[in-house]
């Protein structure tokens, strides 16, 4: 659908013209990754077909003070505890989560795949519900990154005080009242089914005065605003007839910044809020993750797009490459572009599934760009990969749990593998 269509009111952003990289070789990620924004999307083109050099990523493994989730697990007496104005509640540990256990000597790691969704507004297209059902059907869990103002009515927009902008300002439009109600319902069901709710923060500001320009204190302000919208949606909306969400702000353990901007200061800010991971890195090779500032860094990844490029693992990359960023390109090309997208995801999956077993991260939006071909592609990937032997389709939170219980030496050995390298696992997992 075109920007501004009524069925998706509240989620459209202005496009920024992407830039192309012309460097023929990898030097550093910072020098080669070029990020652009369209409706919260991102683009990276790298003029090479090479995989990463042997990856000894910076950042440690199992650092002290931020280890297993169980060390900070809250005690529960079996009773639901309604919090504040009744917007949220504590209903005990989330059910159905992956059991995190250390690898045994010589054991091949699972192939983790994480599907994540930016914004997480339940619009008229029912895509939120669709992917909840897909997750249940294929024994998967996903991460839904909620935009905080999607719980805030437009007539209450001045409750949002964004960094470096006037009160009530946002680079996206506010949701309809009906969409707020439906989003709250979907969030609750998603969490009960074992999916993760993370944060996409609030106003989706990019570029000048966006997250890349924010100080640590300003990022903390943005997180506090998000928490307020989650904790007080009943007061803000007047929807006192609705049940509390079955989780509270302590269940938010990570997020993805709009346009992948501002991670340096964001990482310093999130520690005060108990976040365990961040998915805001502007792209990386398909290697095993490391920590930055004591927080797991789960970046989008470069996947083999064709013989010339590797593209970031998000729907907008394909949109940009295939229709020059136009949300409705040539319909005659939709079947070709859809298959090209599927092939790229599968190439990235196969490279690590038969190689290093590094996790695969796929990020998307609830959008019908180019006739919905990117939604169709994700559907096919879920069907194809979540049913394979040793594959675990999990949330970022579950992956962080698993990473936290592995030996630091095991994680260090895993990070030294090239993406397509299939080792003698006895020499890696000791």
Fill in the keyword field for this structure.
single chain; about 425 residues; alpha/beta; TIM Barrel; 3-stranded antiparallel β-sheet; 11 helices; 13 strands; about 10% strand; disordered N terminus
What level of helicity do the residues show? 25-40%
Mean pLDDT: 85
Q: What do we call the CATH topology?
A: TIM Barrel
Q: What best-fitting shape do the alpha-carbon axes yield?
A: globular
Q: Kindly report how far apart the N and C termini lie.
A: 52 Å
Beta fraction of the residues?
5-15%
When the domains are counted, the total is 1
Total helices: the number is 11
Q: What is the gyration radius calculated from CA atoms?
A: 20 Å
Number of E strands: 13
- Largest sheet composition: 5 strands, parallel
Commentary on this structure:
The model is unreliable at 1-71 (pLDDT under 50). The chain has one domain (6-55, 82-427): Glycoside hydrolase/deacetylase (TIM Barrel, Alpha-Beta Barrel). The termini are far apart. It contains eleven helices and 13 strands. It has 430 residues and is an alpha/beta fold.
Give the secondary structure arrangement, pairings included.
Elements (H helix, E strand, L loop, with lengths): L28 H4 L12 E3 L33 E3 L4 E3 L20 E9 L7 H11 L5 E4 L30 H16 L3 E4 L16 H16 L1 H5 L25 H8 L6 E2 L12 E2 L2 E3 L4 E3 L4 E4 L2 H9 L10 H20 L6 E6 L7 H13 L5 E3 L2 H9 L3 H8 L15
Parallel strand pairs: 4-5, 4-12, 4-13, 5-6, 7-9
Antiparallel strand pairs: 1-11, 2-3, 8-9, 10-11
């Amino acid at each position: 659908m075109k920007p501004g269509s009524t069925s998706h009111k509240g989620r459209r952003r202005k496009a920024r013209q992407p830039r192309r990289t012309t460097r023929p070789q990898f030097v550093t990620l910072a020098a080669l990754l070029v990020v652009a924004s369209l409706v919260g999307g991102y683009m990276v083109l790298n003029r090479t077909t090479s995989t990463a050099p042997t990856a000894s990523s910076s950042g440690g493994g199992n650092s002290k003070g931020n280890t297993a989730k169980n060390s900070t697990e809250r005690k529960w007496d079996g009773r639901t505890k309604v919090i504040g104005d009744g917007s949220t509640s504590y209903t005990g540990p989330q059910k159905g989560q992956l059991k995190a256990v250390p690898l045994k000597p010589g054991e091949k790691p699972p192939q983790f795949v994480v599907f994540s969704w930016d914004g997480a507004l339940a619009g008229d297209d029912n895509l939120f519900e669709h992917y909840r059902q897909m997750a249940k059907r294929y024994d998967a869990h996903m991460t839904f990154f909620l935009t905080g103002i999607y719980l805030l009515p437009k007539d209450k927009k001045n409750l949002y005080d964004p960094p470096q902008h006037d009160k009530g300002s946002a680079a996206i439009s506010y949701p309809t009242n009906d969409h707020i109600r439906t989003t709250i319902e979907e969030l609750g069901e998603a969490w009960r089914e074992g999916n993760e709710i993370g944060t996409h923060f609030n106003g989706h500001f990019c570029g000048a005065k966006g997250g890349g320009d924010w100080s640590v204190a300003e990022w903390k302000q943005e997180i506090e605003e998000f928490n307020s919208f989650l904790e007080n949606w009943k007061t803000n909306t007047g929807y006192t007839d609705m049940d509390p969400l079955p989780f509270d702000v302590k269940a938010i353990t990570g997020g993805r910044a709009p346009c992948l901007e501002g991670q340096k200061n964001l990482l310093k800010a999130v520690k005060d809020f108990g976040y365990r991971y961040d998915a805001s890195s502007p792209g990386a090779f398909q290697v095993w993750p490391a920590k930055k500032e004591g927080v797991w860094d789960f970046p989008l990844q470069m996947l083999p797009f064709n013989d010339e490029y590797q593209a970031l693992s998000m729907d907008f990359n394909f949109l940009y490459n295939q229709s020059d960023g136009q949300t409705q390109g040539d319909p005659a090309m939709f079947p070709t572009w859809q298959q090209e997208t599927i092939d790229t995801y599968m190439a990235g999956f196969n490279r690590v599934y038969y190689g290093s077993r590094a996790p695969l991260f796929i990020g998307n939006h609830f959008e019908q760009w180019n006739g919905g071909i990117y939604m169709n592609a994700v559907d096919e990937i879920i069907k194809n990969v979540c049913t394979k032997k040793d594959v675990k389709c999990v949330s970022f939170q579950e992956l962080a749990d698993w990473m936290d219980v592995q030996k630091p030496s095991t994680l260090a050995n895993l990070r030294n593998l090239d993406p397509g390298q299939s080792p003698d696992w006895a020499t890696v997992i000791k």
